[in-house]
User: Fold this.
Amino acid sequence: MAKNGQIEGGAVLGRVLSVLVILAGILFAAQLCLASPADHSQVPSIFDPHSGNADLLYRLSGFVLSITGLIFVVVFTLLVYVVIRFRERPTNAGREPAQVYGSNQIELAWTVIPILIVVVLFLATARVIHAIQDAPEPAEALEVTAIGHQFWWEYRFPALGVVTANELHIPVSDRAHPRPTFLKLLSADTDHSFWVPQLGGKTDLIPNHINRIWFSPQETGLFLGQCAQYCGTQHAKMLLRVSVESEEDFDAWIQAQKEPAIQDEKESAGRRVFETTACLNCHAVGGTNGTGRFGPDLTHLMSRQTIAAGAAENTPANLRLWIQNPDAIKFGSLMPAMKLSDADLDALVRYLETLK
Amino acid sequence: MSTTTAPITQAPPVWNLPYRGTVGMACLIIAESSIFTIFVVAYLFYVGKSLTGPTPREVLETPIFYTICLLSSSLTIHFAARFLERGKRGGFLGLWLLTIVLGGLFLFGTGMEWHRLIYEHGLTISTNLFGTTYYSLVGLHATHVTVGLLMLTAVLLFGLAGRVVPEQSKRVGVLAMYWHFVDAVWVVVFTVVYVVGR
Amino acid sequence: MSSDAMAIRTAEAAGRPWVEILHEWVTTVDHKRLGVLYIVYALVFLVIGGIEAVIIRIQLIRPLNDFVSPQVFNRMFTMHGTTMIFFVAMPVLFGFANYLVPLMVGARDMAFPRLNAFSFWLSAFGGFLLYFSFVGGSGLYGAGNAPDVGWWAYAPLTSRAFSPGHSTDYWTIALLVSGFGSIGTAINLITTILCMRCPGMTLGRMPLLAWLNLVMSGMVLIALTPLSAAQIMLLADRYLGSHFFDTQAGGSATLWMHFFWIFGHPEVYILILPCFAFMSEIIPVFSRKPIFGYPVMVGASVCIGFVSMSVWAHHMFSIGMTSYANAFFTITTLSVGVPTGIKIFNWLGTMWGGRIQFKTPMLFSIAFLFQFLIAGLTGIMLGSAAFNWQLTGSYFVVAHFHYVIVGGILFALFGAFYYWYPKITGKMLSETLGKIHFWLFFIGFHMTFDLMHIPGLLGMPRRIYTYEPGRGWDTWNLLVTIGALIQSIATLVFVANLIISYFKGRDAGNDPWDAWTLEWSVSSPPPEYNFATIPTVASRRPLWDIKHPEDPDSRYE
Ligand code: HEA
Ligand code: HEA
Ligand code: CUA
Ligand SMILES: [Cu+2]
Assistant:
């Protein structure tokens, strides 16, 4: 019994330590991985902020992590010490230790110290909440309305008269020319959540409940994210792409988006297919009689790199497959298979490709 | 080492624990209050948020008489229980019956109000948010009154058959607790629906 | 009829007729048998919920996997979450409470034995109903399907427009029914604890297990009922045409969130408090010391109960509440750390200066302390509203709550199994298998849930049936899945241990751990009606007083 206790104690300790060493190794590897992501825009890490508000969150997270890390180290050390120091040994086996029922001073200490820590953490958090949530909207801010749909994103630039889908373009907002983007978040059906980790925290899009979120991106580039609130079958493929552009590029993009759709007479056959099938009930193409709102606006479809909210690359083959059978790309999306003849399908795809 | 003998060191002089019926009913009442709270919160949350009419101001009439009926039934059941404790069977049965009649009147009143709202004003549970919250809150209360009446009636039948004896006054008291609770909830519902909600 | 009679006759020849045994178990109102029924029922669902978890993990083992379809995946996590919370954790904890509380407070049964049986069968029926949705989900037409709205079932996804068929109704009614069962059990536990204690067992002398179950039951009364109320509203929406959560008619989606989390947050403390109770019984016995700071432990538990009623919106930091609301729920959430910390420190204080025996129950308890510490600290990170905007809805949250639920609750439960199994069956569980179980599960657990934090920090949302390659999530998910497989092997070892030891285990005797509470004073398994004569106690550790007449606790109280 006595011997047993010692062996067990030692073995336990040894194994605990070895597991911890392994864990530490893994965490270290993780750290490396976090520190040097191969391509910043591909890994949407929250520790890789690229906008002013994401940076605020990043610094807060560093603070909270170090305080909790400290608590962990202290309490964990205590635990290991107690387990080793007070294990059963041959020398003490069979004898009951001194029966201690409590100590008021000690208990007071470990009540008061945590209270102080809590207060500190709260103040640090409250500061950031205030800085982000109560930030006034500056006059030069860009206003965008983002509407969540099952399972795609609609973006409207009310002041600029632009409507687009799935790929958001916003201007960079550096110190010299601050031009933050303020998003008004709405939902057409169920709840969604807008989350591009490198640009900022998430905020939900809830029907009947208007929300606001803003970004002040410091660098140009493509930032990825995705819907972060379960919204139905294809919640997984409701991806977000935000392209942060220089002032000039952004203005050029806006100009292009403002134009009505190009009318290429060569592809009038495909256009007729579009206008005579159900497409136009759900899709809008500026300058045609298609004004549907149920699906994404297609006026400048070709200016997007992906289709179906990032589910596939925007290539002619994918477009064809998508119209023929959306389920093949995004099972359960709300676009029905259109059952067109091969000829119609080809014409339609050629027409869509003119929508630059 | 093992032993089944009781570790008697010093038996406490008196060992009185609360009656379990009372404690059980108190727990039930806590749970029920929490259900009602949620419905009340929903009611208050949606006050004035209906997209279409009719509004409470247009259609609700304050049911003063039926409220008096229900509240006075709390008194009658209280004294009925007292009579039973003292072994006065006649007084107990009489007041008990009166309680049931008063509770029944209240239910009748609710029924009449619903009838009026549905047939005269076309307000149903699906008309608007007012209808939704009104019928569910008042209906939840009415369901409790109904359940209470069923239990009261059962006791009355046993009483008439001579099965309710003074020794059971504790149990009858537990039922009376429930009835008091139903009355108290009505005070809240009344305030919310007929006073605050208008 | 006649075949029944035949069956009985043949069985009689072999011993006790099985129909009779079955009949006894089905009609039993004995708290010990109901406790065992609860526990067995929960173990069955643990394996079912675990298989669902394994399906989830296999699907996520690599990007763009197509092991299951999106719909099936969504059903899997909904059923996994619902099953694990309502049909594993709740019943198993109620099972232990049912079994232990009367024994520990020196009562012969629960206060309302028949209500007890009724509550169990309600809960059991709820579980059956939930799984019946696999065949009944879309009514008589079409293939059957289970609910796929997530375990929070956020509105308006649950409205008829977005959830046609009956799958959501099965979810709603199953939880409503089992919820009523839980309320019944809670009423019963409170009444038992307040009204059935043996002479001398004042509130201040009750074992902490009874205290914590008292607090837990109180929370069930106040916190489970909002869910029932919300379920009633949801049913009314779906079948009577009301508009509580109908955003088209001015209804509010956020109202459901509030109602759900007013239930949901206290619920997680309802689950953890009984586990604290196990710890508070196991750690002192294997440290050979009384619990450190008993009154403070009681106070902290009650405090946790109260504070946890006011923190629910920390699950909703991203829904766009005002900055004041966010700040308020941040401070309440963080404050829970204080009483919880007190408990951790008091357990450490109990071990301090003791003589710690590394029996399997104690191994699980030490692992509990270690893991609950980390889990609580990730909870603190989530509780900081602004940091939460980056973390909520991601795998970091999934990692946090599995850390508490598996690393905390499941480990505590395993500890409880090894500790009380001898009392319940009269046989010891094998220590060898126990150690294998422990180390396998420990390794599997850490492999799964330590690493799961990382994809969360790298931006991986939860509830996605697949993910794009190249986001830096692939390797982590692969390792996490392997960890889950190790956990399932460990679980199999555990189940094997339960079965083998039942037949081949060492006899336990009344008091194998040299413990101090009343349940160890009776035979194992305890006789019907527990105590031949109702005991009288004079301290918190009645058996200590008997074993150490020279230095009884009663002298100091
Ligand atoms: C048993 C279950 C359990 C327990 C005990 C906890 C405990 C805690 N949880 Fe957890 N939680 C869940 C189960 C649980 N949680 C579940 C299931 C979910 C997700 C549900 C879903 O979304 O599906 C969740 C989600 C969840 C969220 C929402 C995440 C999101 O979706 O955005 C938050 C946010 O605040 C949170 C916080 C906390 C905190 C602060 C504690 C605290 O109680 C922890 C307290 C403990 C400590 C702090 C450690 C010990 C203390 C010390 C050593 C003292 C010193 C410390 C300090 C002074 C800080 N939890
Ligand atoms: C008591 C609660 C509990 C427990 C114990 C667990 C245990 C586990 N959970 Fe779960 N989980 C939840 C509660 C719980 N979970 C909740 C509430 C959610 C949220 C749902 C939602 O979002 O709506 C969730 C969600 C959830 C997800 C996220 C899904 C998503 O968002 O897409 C994942 C993913 O990895 C996961 C994994 C696991 C794993 C690997 C285990 C393992 O620990 C399981 C280990 C046990 C076993 C494996 C059982 C033993 C099995 C056998 C003995 C049979 C052997 C069979 C085979 C190997 C086929 N869980
Ligand atoms: Cu949209 Cu998830
Ligand atoms: Cu919570």
User: Anything to note?
Assistant: The pocket of heme-A (ligand 1) is lined by residues A 71, 75, 114, 117-118; C 268-269, 271-272, 314-315, 317, 333, 336-337, 340-341, 344, 373, 376-377, 379-380, 382-383, 388, 392, 397, 400-401, 404-405, 408-409 (CB under 6 Å).
